[in-house]
Structures are given as structure tokens and as C-alpha cells.
Amino acid sequence: MSSTDSPPPGPSPDLPPDLSSGLSSGLSSGLSSLRTQNAARVLDLLRTAGAEGISRLELAERAGLTPQAVSKITARLRAEGLVAEAGRRASTGGKPRTVLRLVPGAGSAVGLHLDRDALTAVAVDLAGAPLAERRAPLAFAAGAEAVVDTAVREVSALLDATGVMPFGVGVALPGPLDHATGVLHRVTGFPEWDGFPLRDVLARRLGLPVVVDKDTNAAALGLALAGATWSFAYLHVGTGLGAGLVLGGEVHRGARTGAGEFGHQVVQLDGPLCGCGNRGCVEALCLAAVAAGAPVEAARVLGEGAANLVGLLDVDLVLVGGRTVSADPELYVRGVDAVLAARARRVGGPPVEVRAVDGDRAVREGAVWLVLAPLFGRG
Amino acid sequence: MSSTDSPPPGPSPDLPPDLSSGLSSGLSSGLSSLRTQNAARVLDLLRTAGAEGISRLELAERAGLTPQAVSKITARLRAEGLVAEAGRRASTGGKPRTVLRLVPGAGSAVGLHLDRDALTAVAVDLAGAPLAERRAPLAFAAGAEAVVDTAVREVSALLDATGVMPFGVGVALPGPLDHATGVLHRVTGFPEWDGFPLRDVLARRLGLPVVVDKDTNAAALGLALAGATWSFAYLHVGTGLGAGLVLGGEVHRGARTGAGEFGHQVVQLDGPLCGCGNRGCVEALCLAAVAAGAPVEAARVLGEGAANLVGLLDVDLVLVGGRTVSADPELYVRGVDAVLAARARRVGGPPVEVRAVDGDRAVREGAVWLVLAPLFGRG
DNA sequence: TGCACTTTGGCAACACCGTTGCCAAAGTGG
DNA sequence: CCACTTTGGCAACGGTGTTGCCAAAGTGCA
Questions:
Q1: Domain count of chain B?
Q2: I want to staple B168 with a disulfide (CB 3.0 to 4.6 A). Which of A181, B144, B179, B209 is the partner?
Q3: What is the average per-residue pLDDT within B65-76?
Q4: CA angle B82-B83-B86, nearest 5°?
Q5: A15 CA to chain B: closest CA distance, Å?
Q6: Residues B90 and B209 reside in one and the same domain
Q7: Are residue A73 and residue A162 in the same domain, yes or no?
Q8: Highest mean pLDDT of the ranges A35-49, A195-209, B179-193
Q9: Does B280 score more than 70 pLDDT?
Q10: What is the distance in angstroms between the Cα of A340 and the nearest Cα belonging to chain B?
Q11: pLDDT, position A129
């Protein structure tokens, strides 16, 4: 199933996966070896193996294919230059296994994190390893054109510096937007952004395919591909409070790609007014506690919201991050964990793991996977 | 993606879909024509078309296949007896289209709804149309063996009456359970059920494949296959309050198949104590309002919970049902809709549709799809 | 009535992918 | 040095969807 819940899956599932599902056209040319899902799966296993590499037989076992199929697939991938042989394992009484490795230099992508006050652009290779990075101040309030100008300038400078021709640019930014069309919605406090077709404008200005998504989704995607787990939620506590959901290994964006509105979950009926117009939102209560210097209470409120989410979706793992969490990660992990553990004891069943992550880094590095993930069948 | 979030998808996605994913083995024999996903998709389109039937060219268009592929697939399905020709369309200037139709009598399944005080067993044909039905009183408190005895007796009587040999038995029942293993968890108030391997016990006693699931999931599955939408939530308000989630066309059961715990979502921090040990659960507040004769307040609380869910998951549609809702469906639809509409106005974007459904009927008829859905690639 | 035209759908050949059978290559150990 | 193990490529095969071609079955105008 595609990551966005598109109504009728037009082409049959076993037709060649179309790379244009999330990107503009013009990318699939020259990468014909990714035609089948199995090739993408093998490539993903090679990515996961990293610099250590992985043998054909291990690939076969993990992909559920015969060794001969893997030989054929990897032969095509080697012909494309995406994969290379890299030494041998020690023998176990017979011919030693040849180790295969993803060729990181075979491709690259750019990740762009647009935050309210700063821009970060990073160029990475096919394995996601950073090649170069640039930061610049940004003013959302200055309007769309100014932000686009800055973004184009920084990305161009980055590409000039690295000399690579990336597959595309993944853009992560806060606030509601339509992932499928790349159009922004009402960003709270910045009404002039409503309806701005960021994806198409950037794509035209840069001459590259562009994918935009919420920062929380980008972070969740990156964490999923870094191997977090099959099913988890990433809670981002920054200037706002949002969630990125990974369900069944894929980012869940919902019918209108608006999923993840965790912060405006009501946990206090008729509670204090929130900026969104609701009363008793998790975000209002949590951030008010932070502002009042009561982080323990903030963590408890966050935990109650997380417990609601865990009960509803039954995820394996809850990750917390963002500027607020970074101030005292242990405190938030303990606070959320306490609420989840208490509920798990009552409901029965194993407790859900809670961990803190560097939120800004997750967003920054996650943005590039908006472009690269489809190559590995994780689009 | 499979409906349960199983960690690493062992076999490759384009291997023949294994019917045993949800059922015991022994079912796939004799149905070799369902090997590929495309055949299952074509069969599902034929099912959706119902008695009116559908032409090969329409199938090709909707399945994203060439007409010739559909000809081959339907030829195999006709050879298996699952599909038959059924008349012709009016000509549009050439050879008239031959209409194909699912043969309902080509198979059957049994749905079993175990409620706290009553049992309903229904036998249906391949299209889901009821063939026969039986009801019997039931006492969960009498223990597992007595309930199993009753279930076996009723299902046997049903099969004797209809004379069919069903593919299997789908069992829907309240309370937490493990869908993957078919083992019950702590049913609130009935501790002796904890750990009871209902699926395997029933399968052995009946000599048939058995699938068990929560009543809310069964209802959601049935509603999804009846064409509700691609992404919706079914909220069941009965003796408890639970949800069945359909995300991207598939029932979301979560990592440990425990998803859908909607009722014990906290919406009133430090609120009144709930039977689960939490404070301020939607279920406690909602049902207390019902008991106090304040259904408007109950609907508002339900709506707040639904709004939290919609924000988090971005579903298209919210369906409400169950005994409490049946008492005054319009009131609950209006109440939930009011809360969702208010939030949609603030957030922007189109409002979410709210509808009432006959909950008991949805569960009863949904149970059979636990068995039949895999045949149509919707497992 | 007859013939040109349109539309449907089957047959045959083909391309693609993964599988099975077989065997060469490259090690270890007695 | 030889038997044995393990890896992995080559060739043939089976299954599936596609393309090219053509027969079947209608409509509509002369």
C-alpha cells in the first residue's frame, strides 16, 4: 500500500513501481533496474547493510528469494553501477561469500528543512551520508517569495559546492500542507502562505523534482529507514506539538495527507483555550506547563496524549524529540514512559518502549528520504 | 501491506499471496486460480459489481490491466467455476460486451458473533449474501468450554441446515484478543478467559479454519468491503466503546493486533475513575452521560474523541453504531458531526462525513469477511 | 438487402521474471 | 593431492502479462 491513502490503486500492484508516485517525472530514466519490487527490496537490504556489505545468500534469505534470483538482480544492479563487490567473507569450509555493497556515489539527494527562523540544506549520497550542509536564517513572516528565494539560493550554492546532480529535493516544514500536491495550507500565524504551491514553485525554480512534507513526517520517515521499528510514533515538541506516524513500515499520512495532528488532541474537556480555538488541547496544556517551569507536568500531559495514541494504534515504540525535549530528554522519556507503563499494567501486554531522539537532526536527515525512499521501495 | 503489521515481510511481495496468512492451511487447495494478486483484484471487482456484473473491458480499466490479461484471468476463474458469463450489454456500434458475474454459490463462509449475552451464526455465499442464520442465548460468565460447546452446536446445526461446506468460520467478539494467534486476553469481568486459545480450540472442534477478531474490527472490515470508503473509523458504542480502523483500505490492527482502544482514550485529565483504572476515559464519560439520561452530552463527548481520532489519522468518514447509538442514531450523528465540523472550520479543509450504521448487523455480516476477504485480496 | 465500419475478445508469439537443474570456481581438511 | 563443502553462474523451464493479428458480432448507411 502506498504511503498516502490514495483511493483506487490504479495500476496493478505488481506492475513496475512507478518512481513518479512521489516525484515529478523524468527521474525513472536510467534506473531501469529498479523495475520490480524485488529489486527495490534487495537494494534496501544493501542500504541497511551499510559499509559492511552483505552476501548474496544473506540477501536471498532476507528477501525471501532464491539465491539465483538474487544473483540476477544484483547483476543488473551492478551493471547500473548502484552495487559493487567489496571483498569476501571468511570461508566456512567452502568458497567464501562475496560481499556486495551499495555504491553511495551512484546518486545523491538534497534535504531542505524550512523552520520558522532558520533554513538547513543538506546534500547526501545514496546511502544518506551527508556530503555538505548549509544553514541560513529565514523569516517565514517575510512571505513565500522571499523564503523561496533563500531556499533556491542555498540549494544552488550547496550543489555548486558538491558538484553533484541530485535526484531531487525533499523539503520538510512545519504546519499543515498537502503532501500529494505540495500545496501549503493555513500556517498558523502566516495566513499569506495559505494555498501556496511550494512544490511546483520550487521544482520550476530549481529544475529538479521536489517533494514536500510536514517536518514530523520527514523525521518519522528518516527514523523508519534508519531502522526504528515497524510501527512507531514520533512526537515532536517544539514551538508546536505534532506527530509522525509509521504504521506497518510506512508513513501514515491519511486520506488528505493531514494525519499527525497530535497536538490539538483534547485531553481536558472545557479546559484552557488553545490557539487553535479548541479547549484543553495537549499542546496548550503541555506548552503551558513548560512555560510555567513545570516540565514534569508537561511530560505527564505528553504521556497521556501518547497513551491515547498507543491505545488507538498499538504501536511498538514512541520516540520523542524537538527543542523542548532536548532541554531534558531523560525527564520526558521517564514522564511519558511512566504513563504508558501504568496503562500497560492495567490493560495487560508488554510495555511500549519510549526513547528520545535529536528532533532537528531527524527532520534534517529525514527530508532527503522523501526523495530517496522510493528507490528502495519505501516510498 | 498485510493488515497486521508483521515486522519483516519474509517472502517477496510478488510471490503468490498465501491464503494461509489469516487462515489455517488446507484452504488454498482447489483455488489455484487465486494465485496472483491481479486475479484477486479482478475477483474483488466482480464481487463489487454484484448481480449486475461487469464487462471484461471495464475490469481491465479498473484493474489497470490490458483487456487480454483480463481475458486470461477470467478464463481461469471461469474454469474454476468462480465466475460465469451473464448476458450482454447493449451494443455501442460494435460487438456488445459480455457481462461477467461472480458465481455466489461457488463458495460459502460462516460468521459467528459472540456477544456477552447472545450468539449469532450466519452462513453466507461467496458474495456475502446470507443463506441462513441462527441465534442462541449465551453466557460469557459460564466459561470458555460452555461457550465453545454452544458455538460448535449452533455452527453445526447451521451447516446441517444449509448443506454447504464453508471455507471457514470468522468469529467476532468483544474484548482484547490477539488476532494473529487467536488467543483471548483479559476480558474485563471474565478473567477466566485470559489466554484461552479460542481459534485453535474452535478449529479443532469444527474441523474448519477459524479466524477470530474483535467485533469492531469485523464490523470495520465488512463496512470496508461494502464500499464505505478508503479510510474511515467505525465507533461502536455498546456495553463498551471501541473503534475499528480502516486505513488505506485495510483494517489497521497494530503491532500486537490491539489497535482500536478508542474508549479508554483520556479526554478529561484527572476526571472520574473508569473501570479500566484510568481517569477521564471517553467511555466512562460517554456512558455515564447515557446513564444519566443526557444523550446530547454523550454525543458531544463521543464527538470530541472522534475529533481527536480524525485529527490524528485524517480519515474520510466516521461511522457510529452499536446499541446506544441505535436508540437515537440521528442525535449521535448530529452531535458528533457538530464537533467535527467545528474543528474542520478551525483547521480548514473539507468536513468529515458522519453516518450511523446498524452496528450489530455490521458485526454479524463483517465476521464472514474475516474468512472471505483474503480470497479477494483484501485480507 | 448488402457492405463498410466499429467494437469485442480469443489465439499465437513474445518478453520478463523467478525457479530448478547442473556444473565450474574456490576454498578447507585429511 | 584428493575428497568434500560452499558459492554462484549458465541454461532450460514455468508462469504471467503484453503485443500483433484476426475472427465474431453487432450497427448504420446506401
A1: 3
A2: B209
A3: 92
A4: 145
A5: 9
A6: no
A7: no
A8: A195-209
A9: yes
A10: 11
A11: 95
Using the C1' atom of nucleotide C29, identify the protein residue whose alpha carbon is closest. A93
Shortest distance, CA B199 to any CA of chain A (angstroms):
19
One-letter-per-residue 3-state SS of chain B: CCCCCCCCCCCCCCCCCCHHHCCCCCCCCCCHHHCCHHHHHHHHHHHHHHHHCEEHHHHHHHHCCCHHHHHHHHHHHHHHCCEEEEEECCCCCCCCCEEEEECHHHCEEEEEEECCCEEEEEEEECCCCEEEEEEEECCHHHCHHHHHHHHHHHHHHHHHHHCCCCCCEEEEECCCEECCCCEECCECCEHHHCCCCHHHHHHHHHCCCEEEEEHHHHHHHHHHHCCCCCCEEEEEECCCEEEEEEECCEECCCCCCCCCCCCCCECECCCCECCCCCECEHHHHHHHHHHCCCHHHHHHHHHHHHHHHHHHHCCCEEEEECHHHHHCHHHHHHHHHHHHHHHHHHHCCCCCEEEECCHHHHHHHHHCHHHHHHHHCCC
pLDDT grade for A351, boundaries at 50, 70 and 90: confident
Element (H or E) spanning A59, and its range? helix A56-63
**Whether residue B110 has pLDDT greater than 90:** yes
Strand C contact nucleotides, protein CB < 7 Å = 5-12, 16-21, 25-29
- Residue B123: give the domain boundaries: 108-219
Q: Which of A105, A121, A144 is the last residue of a domain?
A: A105
Which is nearest to A251 in space by CA: A232, A270, A226, A279?
A: A232
C-alpha cell at B343: 474543528
Task: Indicate whether B325 belongs to any domain.
Answer: yes
Question: If DSSP codes are grouped into helix, strand and coil, which group holds residue A237?
Answer: strand
- Which chain A residues in 289-348 lie under 8 Å from chain B, judged by CB atoms? 301, 304, 307-309, 311-316, 343, 346-348
CB A244 within 8 A of CB B314: no
Which residues on neighbouring strands pair with residue A101, listed in sequence order?
A84
Is A53's CB less than 7 Å from nucleic acid strand D? no
Q: Residue A237 in contact with residue A302, Cβ under 8 Å?
A: yes
Please indicate, yes or no, whether residues A112 and A210 belong to a single structural domain of this protein: yes
Query: Is B259's CB within 8 Å of A10's CB?
Result: no
Model confidence, pTM: 0.90
A123, HSE (Cβ side, Cα atoms, 13 Å): 20
Question: In degrees rounded to 5, what are phi and psi of residue B107?
Answer: -170, 170
Q: Is residue A307 domain-shared with residue A335, that is, in the same domain? A: yes
Percent of chain B with pLDDT over 90: 72
A231/A344 same-domain check:
yes
User: Within the 41-60 window of chain A, which residues sit less than 8 Å (CB to CB) from chain B?
Assistant: 41
Q: What does the block give as the cell for A55?
A: 552476501
